[in-house]
UniProtKB/TrEMBL annotation:
SUPFAM superfamilies: C-terminal effector domain of the bipartite response regulators, CheY-like. Transmembrane segments: none annotated. CDD domains: LuxR_C_like, REC_NarL-like. The lineage of its organism: Bacteria, Bacillati, Actinomycetota, Actinomycetes, Kitasatosporales. It comes from the Bacteria. InterPro entries: CheY-like_superfamily (IPR011006), NreC/VraR/RcsB-like_REC (IPR058245), Sig_transdc_resp-reg_C-effctor (IPR016032), Sig_transdc_resp-reg_receiver (IPR001789), Tscrpt_reg_LuxR_C (IPR000792), WalR-like (IPR039420). One of its GO terms (molecular function) is DNA binding. Keywords: DNA-binding, Phosphoprotein, Transcription, Transcription regulation. The keyword Phosphoprotein applies. This is DNA-binding response regulator. PANTHER family: TRANSCRIPTIONAL REGULATORY PROTEIN NARL-RELATED (PTHR43214:SF24), TWO-COMPONENT RESPONSE REGULATOR (PTHR43214). Gene3D superfamilies: 3.40.50.2300. Residues 155-220 form the HTH luxR-type domain.
C-alpha cells in the first residue's frame, strides 16, 4: 500500500486528490496539509511514501518545504505539482530534492501512475520535459547572471570519479535522451546503459535521474541550445 500526504492550500484541490487516490486499491491518504510548515511536520510524523506537494502556498512554500523534507534524510519522496508557466519554480523544486513534478492539468490516470513511480524510486519527469524545463530556466538564468563560477571542490571530486563512458552517459541523460536512445547513440546494450546510469547516480551521490541532470548543468557538461 502506497501512503500519500497531500499538500495544497486549496481545500477543494485536496479533496479532489483524496477522492482520486483513495479510489485506488493500492493507495491510501495518510494526511493533508495546507502549507509548507505542516507538510514538513506531518512528513516527519507520518513518514508517507510520497508527498504530493503544491508549489505556491502561503508561509513556507513548496520549494522550501521540499528542501527541508529532502534534507531530513527520511524515506519520503516528494512529487511537486505545478503549472507549465512556473518553470523556474519547478526547477528550483527539483534542485531542492523533489523526485519529479507533474503539471496540474495532467490526466488523473497519469498522476496515479506518477505517484506509483515515485514510490518505487523512479523519476516521473519525461526526458523531453526535463530538457525543456531546464533549458528554459538556464536560458533565462544565463541572461540575468554571469557565467557559473569555477567548480567547487566537491563538484570536482564527484566529476573526477566518473569514467569517460560514464560522463558520456551523464551528458546524454542531461540532453534528454532515454536509455534506448543512449544505447543506440553509444552503440551499447540498453542493460549496459542502465548499469552506467546506476553507477553515475551512486558516484555522484544523487537520488535519481533528475538530480543527475541538474549536476550535469551545474558543472557544464550540458548547456541549453
Amino acid at each position: 500500500m502506497t501512503t500519500v500526504l497531500i499538500v495544497d492550500d486549496q481545500a477543494l484541490q485536496r479533496l479532489g486528490f483524496r477522492m482520486l487516490l483513495e479510489a485506488q486499491p493500492d493507495m491510501t491518504v495518510v494526511g493533508e496539509a495546507a502549507h509548507g510548515h505542516d507538510a514538513v511536520r506531518m512528513t516527519a510524523e507520518l513518514r508517507p511514501d510520497v508527498v504530493l506537494m503544491d508549489v505556491r502556498m502561503p508561509g513556507l512554500n513548496g520549494i522550501e518545504a521540499t528542501r527541508r523534507i529532502a534534507d531530513s534524510g527520511g524515506r519520503s519522496r516528494v512529487l511537486v505539482l505545478t503549472t507549465f508557466d512556473l518553470d523556474e519554480y519547478a526547477y528550483e523544486a527539483l534542485r531542492a530534492g523533489a523526485a519529479g513534478f507533474f503539471l496540474k492539468d495532467a490526466r488523473p490516470e497519469e498522476l496515479v501512475v506518477g505517484i506509483r513511480s515515485v514510490a518505487a524510486g523512479d523519476c516521473v519527469i519525461s526526458p523531453s520535459l526535463t530538457r525543456r524545463l531546464i533549458d528554459a530556466f538556464t536560458s533565462t538564468h544565463s541572461r540575468q547572471h554571469p557565467p557559473a563560477p569555477r567548480l567547487t571542490r566537491d563538484q570536482q571530486r564527484r566529476l573526477a570519479e566518473l569514467t569517460e563512458r560514464e560522463r558520456e552517459v551523464l551528458t546524454a541523460v542531461a540532453t534528454g535522451w532515454s536509455n534506448v536512445e543512449i544505447a543506440a547513440e553509444l552503440h551499447l546494450a540498453e542493460s549496459t546503459v542502465k548499469s552506467h546510469v546506476s553507477r553515475v547516480l551512486a558516484k555522484l551521490g544523487v537520488r535519481d535521474r533528475v538530480q543527475a541532470v541538474i549536476f550535469a548543468y551545474d558543472v557544464g557538461l550540458a548547456r541549453p541550445d
